[in-house]
């Protein structure tokens, strides 16, 4: 091997993250070549299709290129290509081959106007709020109680669970969203007080408002949303949600859904509304990833940076760390996506290609039958 050819690598957790400027992804000699980085930190990596065990190629930014041959290489090994911009918006996604099931698509379309769709939405939101309540219990030292409509103070977790218990399929989507929003306000008020540690060599130079998570809404946006983060915590959350959106979209494709036809989330140009529905019960799993990270290590120089508009973006080192958890985010989405398919079709025996639960159950049953037969034969011989 000549000195200009990098050694063949195996991506950590099956995920390649390419970030920086002048990105180049192409194929040479049957290997995928990934060139990325910033300034003197540019690097070149090389992967072979047979041993890479690649699941995802995540590109952060918009400066560079990927060849058609590289796209084909990624698809041929069953991986997905994902492009996320520096504000954590999902730009492009090339998912593995999807399963086509006309009955499920038809049920998906009809469910939006039927009680079945509202029941499915209730199930998704209740799962989300229960996990949010558990996180609120973990963070109870930051905000112990909340007062609801001048009543006696109750814990934040109890307030969230009250909203979940108020949900049922006879309510409209608008009312369900209101209940979810009320729970979210209490949840994010608690999150706003999460503190952030920084590396001692950088600590004295960071803005004061970076030391806590801060409100979910962003002062950098006219509409008061959270897409343009102004603190490191929400920049991390936004990026993790972008990875979660990718996994939800891929899950929808594999099951045979149309990711753009939502239930609770209305149709919107360039948005996968059903993928956004599927994200809801898994968002707390993304929150936990960020919370665990913040409690385990400080942020270092290069992990985040601030633009001239005051928007905080995560750097390539931190992006790689978070993207490595995409498999756990898929695991958080998968059971809810499969349950949604069963609910809409009214079939408890619908395939489970994401969790492979039916496959595992069949193997366990076969083993149990084999042991039973072996014991029976032993008894007869005795």
From TrEMBL:
Enzyme kind, highest EC tier: hydrolase
InterPro entries on file: Cas1, CRISPR-assoc_Cas1, CRISPR-assoc_Cas1_C
UniProt entry keywords in alphabetical sequence: Antiviral defense, DNA-binding, Endonuclease, Hydrolase, Magnesium, Manganese, Metal-binding, Nuclease
Entry EC no(s): 3.1.-.-
Subunit structure: Homodimer, forms a heterotetramer with a Cas2 homodimer.
Biological role: CRISPR (clustered regularly interspaced short palindromic repeat), is an adaptive immune system that provides protection against mobile genetic elements (viruses, transposable elements and conjugative plasmids). CRISPR clusters contain spacers, sequences complementary to antecedent mobile elements, and target invading nucleic acids. CRISPR clusters are transcribed and processed into CRISPR RNA (crRNA). Acts as a dsDNA endonuclease. Involved in the integration of spacer DNA into the CRISPR cassette.
Family per record: Belongs to the CRISPR-associated endonuclease Cas1 family.
Protein name per UniProt: CRISPR-associated endonuclease Cas1
Lineage start: Bacteria, Bacillati, Actinomycetota, Thermoleophilia, Solirubrobacterales
